[in-house]
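Researcher: Go.
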Amino acid sequence: MTIDPPFAHLAGRLATGLAQVADLRADPSVLERGWWVVVARFEGELTGYRFERVVRAPLPPAAAAWTGPAGAWHSSLDRTAYLDGVARIRAHIAAGDVYQVNLCRMLGASLSRPVDPLALAHRLAAGNPAPLQGVLHLGREWIVSASPELFLARDPHPDGGGDVVASSPIKGTTRPGEPFADKDYPENIMITDLVRNDLGRIARPGSVVVTGLLAREEHPGLAHLVSTVTARPAAGVGWAELLAATFPPGSVTGAPKIRALEVIAELEPVPREVYCGAFGFVDGDRRRARLAVAIRTFFGDDDRIRFGTGAGITYSSDPAAEWDETELKAARLIGLTR
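Model: Structure:
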């Protein structure tokens, strides 16, 4: 049995019956009631999709086989341009402008016909399983994510006194079984501190805790360094305050965040759009949410498919190694589209 769009599948839940589309920049408070899919584009557009019917269900079968891109993938930055970008970031760091910047490139390919994103979702689930996989199919536009990175989780606190939020930034990537580079450890700590500060803006005094630091996580084809920060929001803090304090995610911007965003705008020739934004669900009625950083994420429409890849740049970065990291992150997933 196939399902007609619009629908979503996230965290083992199938959502149908789209009832409302909301601009969450104008009114994030709508997330306090109902079950929503949230799509936050890196440049700031924030959209909520409220579904009326949400049931636990496996990923639905695809209506058609995956056909894949019609031609080659093209990158917004070629190797020469990316290496130059790394050099320019190192110059910014030497000048004291920033400590770290995430430099990304967008990959795109044309489609000869509309595709079924569920077919791609099944390929990713089999070939690149990830803890925060998800699909949103709106008809013409769609998102298929195999993100391993938690941007924000929100749950009722076990003691019944308010909520607890968590974020698990990833910084540090290597091949399975291989050691991380020396720069990966201080870079992860730097971004963990940024996330701690972001959450501290909305948290009860003394409630921000680093519950995990520099944990190695194995994923298909690569390994990451992951840290986790938790906090208890202060009284009166809702989604407006929480998103304003934390978005865009620190792991895909840099430190300090505002200056890093300016450097990104200077160096990246095209918008990231969904990539490096946030994608997930908010269950306002149960005060639960899981928003992923939208990495390892495909998105597109009837004509084109897009995918982003990037690396965190510090002064000790080797430009060629950073390019290779972007290739490593993309290779397995792009291979699954063929």
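Model: The first strand starts at residue 7 and ends at 10.
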